[in-house]
Amino acid sequence: MNESNDVKSRQIFLVEDNKADIRLILEALKHSSLPHEVVTVRDGMDAMAYLRREGEYENAPRPDLILLDLNLPKKDGREVLAEIKADPNLRRIPVVVLTTSRNEEDIFHSYDLHVNCYITKSRNLSELFQIVKGIEDFWLSTVTLPLE
């Protein structure tokens, strides 16, 4: 494990519109032994404003990891992913698509846009907790993340 992970609180940016999913993901992250903070927005427009530090988000911390749903209001997750990966200031932030979509076109398109990982959400609570734990263990504990 990278020693800096023991000290630095990780910033997780959750882009999810479903209140129940937000609650479950936050609950799963509560059991983390890693120090972290989670910021949640519920649509794609707010996601991009946050990441670009615009308006009310001008002092937003840079996330270490983005958990992105594809089916979002205002601007969908596919558009958000494309904008993140096209922006030289954002493209190195790892993006995990965490969605209910099992559509092969969504999977292929996400990887074409250079998503770091595509995970289909489970509706089973214990499986969802396992998924979130796996994301946390790999992306926040094992991987060396780029600095801003």
3D architecture notes:
- The protein has six helices and five strands, in the order H-E-H-E-H-E-H-E-H-E-H.
- With 148 residues, the chain is an alpha/beta fold.
- The chain has one domain (4-142): Rossmann fold (3-Layer(aba) Sandwich).
- A five-stranded parallel sheet has the order 2-1-3-4-5, with helices on both faces.
- Strand 4, helix 5 and strand 5 form a beta-alpha-beta unit.
- Helix 2 (19-30) packs across helix 6 (125-142) and helix 3 runs parallel beside helix 4 (77-86).
- The longest helix has 18 residues, at 125-142.
- The radius of gyration is 14 Å and the shape is globular.
Brief summary of the model shown:
The protein is of the alpha/beta class and 148 residues long. 41% of the residues lie in helices and 17% in strands.
**Structural class computed from helices and strand pairing:** alpha/beta
Distance between the termini: 20 Å
Low-confidence stretches: 1-6
Kindly report the CATH topology. Rossmann fold
Inertia-based shape: globular
Query: Which series of helices and strands comes N to C?
Result: HEHEHEHEHEH
Any idea how many domains?
1
How many β strands by DSSP? 5
What is the name of the CATH class? Alpha Beta
| Largest sheet geometry | 5 strands, parallel
Percent of sequence in beta strands: 15-25%
Number of helices: 6
The CATH homologous superfamily name equals Response regulator
Give Rg in angstroms.
14 Å
Overall mean pLDDT? 88
CATH architecture: 3-Layer(aba) Sandwich
- In order across it, which strands form the biggest sheet? 2-1-3-4-5
